[in-house]
């Protein structure tokens, strides 16, 4: 394993312990509201601190972009760690077991290493650019389905920014009508990993943040999937609008979404 990926895995496991310990007594966890339908708990902060301890001990000069550290770039370096300490906070505070730690390392803006760790299932997804994607050390691949009417597609609802709702519902209606089903699980990093290991055939969501998708997208790409924005282009990390799927259905999913792209 690449030494930088190894550090990311160590950090993710450390955070996983913090989160699992806290999940034994959720009633005691303090939660704050950042804005409408956007929450952060003391466990998000503690998990992020645990991750930063591990990463900065190994690489004190690297830059950091982490959700709960004010969501701004800290430090200057060609290397940047993009961190979501709990992706799926709403699930976590409800005791709904679908959340993960997401850690990516970019070098000169290109994602090179990725970890998404689901501590509840002890599922560790990893990828290094050019080396492949793995779930608990076993190689993973995207699904082979090619007919949209056989595909299960996952998505996320725009719950905190109401300005997306109408566009989103129009997209959802068209995808629902043409596929075998739609899933909304509530942790974008894991949604992407589910595409990577073929548990779903595709995924789309609007207005995400870099820490939601940086790690999961490399895992999809290294598993043989394709990641684009809603126009089929490569702006997804900046725009936060993302579509990921196996190569046989990506174009079909883009086609269903296209009439609603502004
Ligand atoms: C959220 C999750 C969710 C997505 C939201 C994200 P958070 O991340 O990824 O699936 O629909 O848009 O904000 O806030 O729980 O880290
Ligand atoms: Ca959040
Ligand atoms: Ca997130
Ligand atoms: Ca988060």
From TrEMBL:
UniProt cross-references to Gene3D superfamilies, sorted A to Z: 3.40.190.80, Fructose-1,6-Bisphosphatase, subunit A, domain 1 (3.30.540.10)
One BP term from GO: inositol metabolic process
Known cofactor(s): Mg(2+)
Binding site for Mg(2+): 67, 84, 86-87, 212
InterPro entries: IMPase, Inositol_monoP_metal-BS, Inositol_monophosphatase-like, Inositol_monophosphatase_CS, Inositol_monophosphatase_SuhB
Reactions the enzyme catalyzes: a myo-inositol phosphate + H2O = myo-inositol + phosphate
Keywords: Hydrolase, Magnesium, Metal-binding
EC number(s) on file: 3.1.3.25
Name of the top EC class for this enzyme: hydrolase
GO molecular function: inositol monophosphate 1-phosphatase activity; metal ion binding
Family: Belongs to the inositol monophosphatase superfamily.
Protein name (Swiss-Prot/TrEMBL): Inositol-1-monophosphatase
Encoding gene, per UniProt annotation: suhB
């Amino acid at each position: 394993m690449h030494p930088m990926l190894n550090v990311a895995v160590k950090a993710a496991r450390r955070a996983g312990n913090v989160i699992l310990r806290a999940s034994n007594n959720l009633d005691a966890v303090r939660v704050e509201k950042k804005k409408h339908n956007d929450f952060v708990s003391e466990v998000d902060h503690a998990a992020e601190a645990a991750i930063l301890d591990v990463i900065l001990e190994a690489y004190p000069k690297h830059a950091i972009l982490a959700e709960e550290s004010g969501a701004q770039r800290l430090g200057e370096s060609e290397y940047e760690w993009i961190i979501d300490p709990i992706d799926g906070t709403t699930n976590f505070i409800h005791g709904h077991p679908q959340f993960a730690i997401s850690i990516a390392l970019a070098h000169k803006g290109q994602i090179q290493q990725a970890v998404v760790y689901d501590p509840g299932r002890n599922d560790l997804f990893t990828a290094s650019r050019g080396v492949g994607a793995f779930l608990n050390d076993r190689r993973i691949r995207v699904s082979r389905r090619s007919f949209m009417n056989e595909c299960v597609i996952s998505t996320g609802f725009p719950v905190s920014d109401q300005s997306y709702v109408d566009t989103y519902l129009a997209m959802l209606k068209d995808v629902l009508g043409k596929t075998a089903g739609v899933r909304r699980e509530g942790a974008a990093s894991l949604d992407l990993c589910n595409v990577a290991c073929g548990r779903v055939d595709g995924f789309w969501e609007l207005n995400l943040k870099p820490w939601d998708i940086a790690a999961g997208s490399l895992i999809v790409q290294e598993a043989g999937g394709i990641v684009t924005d809603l126009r089929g282009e490569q702006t997804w990390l900046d725009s936060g609008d993302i579509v990921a799927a196996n190569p046989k259905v990506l174009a079909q999913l883009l086609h269903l979404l296209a009439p609603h792209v502004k």
